[in-house]
UniProtKB/TrEMBL annotation:
This is Uncharacterized protein. InterPro entries: Ankyrin_rpt, Ankyrin_rpt-contain_sf. It holds the Pfam family Ank_2. The keyword Repeat applies. It comes from Tuber aestivum. The lineage of its organism: Eukaryota, Fungi, Dikarya, Ascomycota, Pezizomycotina. ANK repeats lie at residues 208-229. PANTHER family: ANKYRIN REPEAT AND PROTEIN KINASE DOMAIN-CONTAINING PROTEIN, ANKYRIN REPEAT-CONTAINING PROTEIN-RELATED. Keywords: ANK repeat, Repeat.
Length: 341
């Protein structure tokens, strides 16, 4: 029995994606946007028409339009699950193909949160699950897992981390891991999920030198910070970043009172340690006029109001005495009096 004829793009539109029985045309004929009948059926999601086209030995399953999108990329971008599944039935379909912007189907599906499409794509043995996308302005980049974390697509994240081929610690061009991206964008449920994975690395610094804990201290999300602080893999919450800022120093710098309290209560930080700009936590808070923070730090056991940044430098006590803040001076007097009792 002969195969049914295949229409061109215009005829396909006019027939609503149904293949006519008689008129034969070029199966790979392109319209002015370089779309073939297969491209158009992928876009419309006409599964029966896709399967009929795939029966032709002449059909180019990896044909590209003006934006270098193959039928698989088009179907993925449109969220047409049935079309994606039909296309994946062909062993000739390139599942790692890239469009003009450098995106591949899995990355697109992960970004858009098309979980079932992610699952279908991962079903192919030849898929590259750790593909790295790099855009020109660096706003969107990284692996499918990274972009799913960035956008908060937790179902897609679940599918990806369940696949043993996926590198859950893969870094994007900026050095950010999925844990970093989840912390930086307050994706609390995703971070909680990632931290259950035995091989997860919550200590890796990004290119700027910050670990996820530094990032969490900086953005001020207490839930995110506490998840990381309580994570067994983080044994030293007082670790300095490449620029010498500790999480405590960053929390003070950005006035994250809840995080400051959490670190002090944790007990693993040096309350008199030098951080960032070369200041002790107490002096840094005073220089930033953070009265509430100074008040809380002065109540911490072991805090040293006379600790100098370096020999010959000013201590917190000297800074307050030479300053004009009467409230700070009152706090210093109260601290001195409490020390005499």
């Amino acid at each position: 029995m002969s195969l049914p004829p295949v229409p061109n793009g215009a005829l396909l539109h006019s027939t609503g994606g149904v293949l006519p029985e008689k008129k034969r045309v070029d199966v790979n004929k392109k319209d002015r946007r370089h779309r073939t009948p297969l491209s158009l059926t992928a876009e419309s999601g006409k599964v029966d028409a896709i399967r009929a086209l795939l029966e032709s030995e002449q059909v180019d399953v990896n044909t590209k339009d003006m934006e270098l999108r193959t039928p698989l990329i088009i179907a993925t971008e449109e969220g047409n699950l049935g079309a994606v599944r039909a296309l994946l039935e062909s062993s000739q379909v390139d599942v790692n193909t890239k469009d003009i912007w450098g995106r591949n189907p899995l990355w697109i599906a992960a970004r858009k949160g098309y979980t079932e499409i992610v699952k279908a794509l991962l079903g192919r043995k030849d898929i590259n699950p750790n593909f790295q996308f790099r855009d020109r302005d660096m706003t969107l980049q990284g692996t499918p897992l990274g972009i799913a974390c960035y956008h908060g697509n937790i179902s897609a994240v679940q599918e990806l981390i369940a696949d043993e081929r996926v590198d859950i610690n893969a870094r994007d061009p900026a050095g950010l891991t999925p844990v970093h991206l989840s912390a930086a964008n307050s994706r609390r449920d995703i971070l909680r999920l990632l931290l259950t994975r035995p091989s997860i690395d919550a200590l890796t610094p990004c290119r700027s030198g910050n670990t996820p804990l530094h990032t969490a201290a900086e953005i001020g999300d207490l839930d995110i910070f506490m998840q990381l602080l309580c994570f067994p893999g983080i044994t030293n919450p007082d670790i300095p970043a490449a620029d010498s800022w500790t999480p405590l120093g960053l929390a003070i710098r950005h006035a994250r009172v809840g995080i400051i309290r959490a670190l002090v209560k944790d007990g693993r930080v040096d309350i008199n340690g030098i951080s960032g700009a070369g200041h002790t936590p107490l002096l840094l808070a005073a220089k930033l006029s953070l009265f509430k923070v100074v008040k809380e730090l002065l109540q911490v056991e072991g805090v040293d109001v006379y600790k100098q940044e370096a020999e010959g430098e000013m201590s917190f006590a000297e800074f307050v005495e030479k300053g004009n803040s009467q409230r700070m001076k009152k706090l210093l007097r109260e601290k001195a009096e409490s020390g005499r009792h």
